[in-house]
């Protein structure tokens, strides 16, 4: 019985391997060698290829429409406004000019209870 099972497993694996090899050679390629070489040369010309580990991933040059002075002015304005986050303790940054609420918790609870009673909000207990 073991011999029969082993023979079947070996024959099935050989048939599957032959079928896979036959199907991979039957599929036509969508690009010619000349097209691939042309794409390679174009990528080299644009600097999109890396050579070794030191330049991976390739650096893509970015362009900016702002001058250095404009960026520095934005930084100074953001620091003056207090919207620059420094570390984890002051995240998310809150503007120094942000308005604080003058409504008390009791007033908010009363308003919520009123709206829940009218059916505009789901009811909740405080």
UniProtKB/TrEMBL annotation:
Keywords: Signal. Residues 1-21 form the signal peptide. It comes from the Bacteria. InterPro entries: DUF4148 (IPR025421). It holds the Pfam family DUF4148. This is Uncharacterized protein DUF4148. The lineage of its organism: Bacteria, Pseudomonadati, Pseudomonadota, Betaproteobacteria, Burkholderiales.
């Amino acid at each position: 019985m073991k011999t029969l099972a082993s023979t079947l497993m070996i024959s099935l694996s050989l048939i599957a391997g032959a079928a896979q090899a036959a199907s991979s050679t039957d599929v036509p390629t969508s690009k010619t060698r000349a097209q691939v070489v042309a794409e390679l040369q174009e990528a080299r010309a644009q600097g999109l290829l890396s050579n070794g580990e030191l330049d991976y991933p390739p650096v893509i040059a970015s362009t900016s429409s702002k001058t250095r002075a404009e960026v520095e002015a934005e930084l100074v304005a953001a620091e003056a406004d207090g919207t620059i986050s420094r570390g984890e303790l002051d995240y998310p940054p809150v503007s120094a000019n942000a308005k604080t609420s003058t409504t008390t918790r009791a007033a908010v609870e009363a308003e919520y209870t009123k709206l829940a009673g009218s059916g505009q909000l789901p009811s909740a207990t405080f």
